[in-house]
Amino acid sequence: MSTQRIPFERQRQMWIDFYHQYPDAEWAEQCQQQIVRIDRIIDFERAALDTPSPSPGPVATMPAGPYAERRFMWLGDRRDIRIDVLRDGITRLAKAGCIRPEREQQDAMRRGLGVDLNDSERHSGIPWVYWLADDAQLHFLIASLWDMGLIHAAGGESAKWPTLCGLFLHPDGSRHTLKIRTNRCKNPRKRKVISDAILDGLGFVSRGS
Question: Is the separation of the CB atoms in 73 and 151 below 8 Å?
Answer without folding.
Answer: yes
